Amino acid sequence: MSSSRKCARRRDDLAPPPPPPCRTHSRFPLRAPPLLHPISSHSPPLPPQPWSRRQPPPPSPDAVSAAIASLPSRLTPPVLASSLASTSDARLLLPLLDHSLRLPAFRPDPAPFLVAIKRLAAADLYADFDRACALVFSLLPSLPSPGPLLRAALYFYCQFGRLGKAFHVYTLMRGSADPAARPSADSYHTLFTALLSRGRGDTMVHYMYMDNVSALFRQMLEEGIPPDTRTLNVLVRGYAQSLHLNDALRVFHQMRPLYGCEPDAFTYSYLVHGLSAQGRTRNARELFDEMRGKGLLPTEPACNTFVSALAVAGEVDEAEGIMWELATAGRVVDDITRRAVVEELARAGKREDADRVVRELEDKGIVNSREGQALLSSIHDDHEVQSMTIMKTTLNVDDRGRNTW
């Protein structure tokens, strides 16, 4: 055997064994899909994955070193807070905090952490904000007056939509030894609003979160914190958005005698909006008259829903009167509501009144000529459709004009 054959056999012995065949339960073996663009040494490199809005690239080591070097030699909490407030790049705040905590002579204080938390949240740097809050939570036993820190962390966690983190802060606040760090009425209001912002327009999701809101409200009463009108409005709005209007009315009727709070324009607007959405126009009208008697003005969504509900319910003359009353008071209904009033007038056989309403809308400057023509055309189109339907029924013809006898 020649030396070349011996070397080839030796190389074959050193080569790795071939991979085992792929076993599948199918009759056909698995095959890799063909490459659309074969990889070669001349293929361009893949572009780097871009950083998301909440995950910016970290600062360079040189920038971190320069920021640390710019700190004064005798670092105190007020000096560090001033340095953090004047730092142009918010990504450097957390490295500066880490560096200051490693100094043996530095004593932690809430002021630098409060500046860092607010700036990181304003810059939408959630990862750094969460790490800064974790540092605060680890130093809570040694921090004097942690109330402002905990309230800021609770508020910004709710703004970021991190309800689990927010309730963790709420638990820390309830267990704090400092009475000033306990949850206040503002803290509960922040949690209520964050819970009710879930689900968007889903009434079932709103009602599911109302159980949490009710439990928090009971804890608020057990803590001896008296509710104010703003807090009770959150309960009314939550029940109204979930279309549980009886619960909303129960809270409304308890505001004065039980809690000593006076309903405001938002209280009435939530109830009028919810009752109108349910078609309970009589109850909505009673609350509307009550709030107007107090000189209160409903919000724009409540105005639109109330006027539309009256028009659709057949009370179109009353809907028109309320629309003009609200326009005089400075609340102009939207285009959908105006169209509903005009079309319901025409559908009730009051074509002249519908034309008059459109002309008055143009004269008052609420709509321009193009929008007025659009309203009139919608009336005429609807009238033509009704006329064609009556004609086909009378003549017994189908859509193609053929006799149906």
From TrEMBL:
The keyword Transit peptide is assigned to this record: yes
Single Gene Ontology MF annotation: mRNA binding
Listed Pro residues bias regions: 44-61
PPR repeats (start-end): 228-263, 264-298
InterPro entries (UniProt xref): Mito_RNA-Proc/Resp (IPR051240), PPR_rpt (IPR002885), TPR-like_helical_dom_sf (IPR011990)
Disordered: region residues: 1-65
Keywords: Repeat, Transit peptide
Source organism of this protein record: Eleusine coracana subsp. coracana
Protein name per its UniProtKB record: Pentatricopeptide repeat-containing protein
Keyword Protein biosynthesis in annotation: no
Superkingdom to which the source organism belongs: Eukaryota
